[in-house]
Amino acid sequence: MKLSQRAPPDRFEAPRRRLPHLHPHPQGPVSNIDAAFQASTLGLLADIAGRLKQTLRWDPKQERFVGNDQANKMLCRPMHNGWQL
Length: 85
Prior knowledge:
The protein has 85 residues and is mainly alpha-helical. It has a domain at 31-77. It is built from 3 helices and 2 strands.
């Protein structure tokens, strides 16, 4: 068989073999999604406080800053090119 007649390689085959952790594990996931969410939220909130150069109070139940409309506006950015959720 000539090289030009061979089927193109599956470009996703090699990465799939290198990532066995993507397959379900009998003991469940390695990390807790709630802990990951809290950790990423903390970083985002710290970024907003740093940009505003203010100490802010966070209400985790409401997922809003207490008494700071400017900080609350920074929780969500407008989407580009007509994208919407």
